[in-house]
Amino acid sequence: MKKSTLLHLRIPFSFFLLPVFLLACAVAETIDWQNFGLAFFILHFLVYPASNGYNSYFDKDEESIGGLKNPPPVTKELYWTALLFDLIGLIAGLFISIEFTLMVVVYGLISKAYSHPSVRLKKSPISGWLAAGIFQGYFTYLLSYIAVKDVALIASFSWEIQLPGILSSLLLLGSYPMTQVYQHDEDSRRGDLTLSRLLGIKGTFHFTAVVFAITTGGFLYYFNTYHQFMDGLYFTAFLSPVLIYFSIWYLSIRKNLVSADFTYTMRLNFISAIFLNGFFIFWWIN
Questions:
Q1: Which residues contact 157 (CB under 8 A, 6 or more apart)?
Q2: Which of 90, 119, 148, 268 is deepest in the core (most CB within 10 A)?
């Protein structure tokens, strides 16, 4: 495998999507550990990297992308490697269940539609935003839940199970435009009108702040209704460093829009992932 192919798979970037999987595990409570290990590997080492690689192949970015400050030129090897990773993931998924595997197929198709020139959801600010938020959040939460719990999808059809999945999508719908805030110039050259481009840099910050506040309220309601009020307090405490960093960055871009760059964005992603992963592990254990 060429170094450029490995870099574009962006396997470490899967860490930023891990909170959804951990949330599903915490809600499931009782875990089938064999399915847990298999689902974790399929999602974070096969499906997500395949999606990254496939989209990178068609985007052919020349400037920074998520998890890769200086992306090298893509080759045809990246395209075939992404498809191979998908195939291995589907075969491995059959050891969990047919239902899980079919959901992985749907996820893969949607992720490919994001950048493929025949569809390119990324060109539309709303469809691209909804596809990323719903399928990386709610949909991934459900397929993770049925895998680690070893149940059929119909077993998740209760408000107590559905609500955390919906909230995970709200988190992503709020944060996803922030991941695009430094890509406006390149997206403009390609003709991709992302939601962040539509909102503008300051508008993206305002939008994220509002959605984040709504999502936090939703999680507080969920914890207070189905678990303990203290869980909600722990949740807000874990996320306070994210809010502090976000606020400092916002004040910086108020003075100079140049601060809306790759480095600041990746720091926000890293801090968010650290504390969300930390909270869901803490909550799961307790």
A1: none
A2: 148
